[in-house]
Amino acid sequence: MNIIKLKNEIEVAQKAAEIIENQIKINNFSVLGLATGSSPILTYENLIKSYKKGEISFANVKTFNLDEYKGLQPTHPQSYRYFMNEKLFNHIDINIKNTFVPEGVNNVNPEAYDQLIKDKGGIDLQLLGLGVNGHIGFNEPGTSFDSLTSEVDLAKETIEVNSKKFFNGDLSEVPTKAYSMGLKSIMNSKKILLIATGSSKAEAIHALVNSEISENWPCTVLRNHNNVTIVIDEEAGKLI
Ligand code: GLP
């Protein structure tokens, strides 16, 4: 595991964007795995800037998102499809037909998602955030390392954190279930890039790097992968 510790979230986002851009420059037909949450927002802003400067094109890129809330329409402002359109896709030259996010309401078919990824050539580079409890995607503690894309229950902690960040603190608004790529789906990616910033992630980063590989900390599965880069700031890395 390659660990890059930087000063703050600005530097983390620059580094993450640079790694993603390099992937596209190496192969402009790359298949990217993308993440939502607050962590990747600045990274996406940097990608948009590079696109606007003419440094990269997404015209041939395909993307697969990790997860989606069960029950939220793609037009719902807190749905991950809406997030991706707003934070990235609407601002770049990607063909929206080449962007895939698990369906939250209509045409729900999580079991077909892994096959679709395979059919498109597999994920070249998967971007990940990190839950405070060590979840990746929506794979909460206790998830099997053999899991594929499926319907999942969100942990109480995740519902609380996401209600504060995205649902104006209204717990009742946060779906309790989601569709998420599984840990095995994530591990099938050729390269993985995890980003984390802020002290709330310090314990999970410590577990990722130092704890026994176990389903109690889903992120520890990444230690079984041979091409993982984690980019963190000083705060997230303060326990390692
Ligand atoms: C969310 C998402 C994850 C994300 C994580 C961290 O619930 N499902 O994909 O990585 O939790 O979120 P944030 O970046 O907002 O801290």
TrEMBL record:
Q: What Gene Ontology cellular component terms go with this record?
A: cytoplasm
| Gene name of this polypeptide | nagB
Taxonomically, the superkingdom here is Bacteria
> Which CDD domains does UniProt cross-reference here?
GlcN6P_deaminase
Q: Which GO terms describe its biological process?
A: carbohydrate metabolic process; glucosamine catabolic process; N-acetylglucosamine catabolic process; N-acetylneuraminate catabolic process
Task: Supply the alphabetized keyword list.
Answer: Carbohydrate metabolism, Hydrolase
Instruction: Provide the species name.
Output: Mesoplasma chauliocola
Tell me the InterPro entries matching this sequence: Glc/Gal-6P_isomerase (IPR006148), Glucosamine6P_isomerase (IPR004547), Glucosamine6P_isomerase_CS (IPR018321), NagB/RpiA_transferase-like (IPR037171)
Spell out the protein name for this chain. Glucosamine-6-phosphate deaminase
- Write one Gene Ontology MF term: identical protein binding
